[in-house]
Design a protein that fits this description.
Blueprint: E1 10-18, E2 21-26, E3 30-35, E4 49-55, E5 58-63, H1 65-68, E6 81-89, E7 92-100, E8 102-110, E9 114-115, E10 129-135, E11 138-143, H2 145-148, H3 151-171
Parallel strand pairs: 2-11, 5-7
Antiparallel strand pairs: 1-2, 1-8, 3-6, 4-5, 6-7, 9-10, 10-11
């Protein structure tokens, strides 16, 4: 006896705010949320890479999604944080940070709660969106974080992070 997949099975998403809009990423991609701290700027990286942080001995690139989406850089406040996400880049699982103005909550959405990405009214490229989630009486934009943090955009950062890691190893 085989069972059919349950269309009502829920998927959890972490929601966060960025430049006045609410976004969501699949909770399985989220590793942790950390307080915004000092970032080390790396030369020759795109402006969307705000810098790197030391996360328990690992150098991790931090991406400013507001800049990537063509918005203005948000001011850092007491609620600003870095959401650590794991994505696949060039067949390797990689942890990266994304800056959020604030983290909201974890929501559960069924397949029926996710509508196609709108072709209007959002500042985000349509191919960066998995869809629009209906959560109560509001909607959140669900990011396809694998596409947002693609290899083409992040290759300069990965090379710079690699150089920083080599320099750190040489000092020890």
């Amino acid at each position: 006896m085989t069972s059919q997949p349950n269309q009502q099975q829920s998927i959890q998403y972490l929601t966060f705010h960025l430049a006045g809009e609410e976004y969501a990423v699949g909770i399985l991609n989220v590793k942790e949320i950390i307080e915004y701290g000092t970032l080390t700027k790396i030369p020759k990286t795109p402006p969307t890479i705000r810098g790197v942080i030391n996360l328990r001995g690992n150098v991790v690139a931090v991406v400013d999604l507001a800049l990537k989406f063509g918005m203005v850089e948000s001011p850092v406040t007491a609620r600003t944080c870095i959401v650590m996400v794991e994505v696949e880049i060039n067949d390797t699982r990689t942890v990266m940070g994304i800056i959020a103005d604030s983290v909201s909550q974890v929501i559960s959405l069924s397949h029926d709660d996710i509508l196609p990405a709108p072709s209007f009214g959002t500042r985000v490229r349509i191919d960066f969106l998995h869809g629009m989630g209906r959560s109560g009486d509001k909607f959140v934009l669900i990011l396809d974080i694998e596409k947002v943090l693609s290899a083409e955009d992040l290759a300069p950062a990965a090379a710079s992070v690699g150089a920083v890691e080599l320099a750190a190893e040489a000092q020890t």
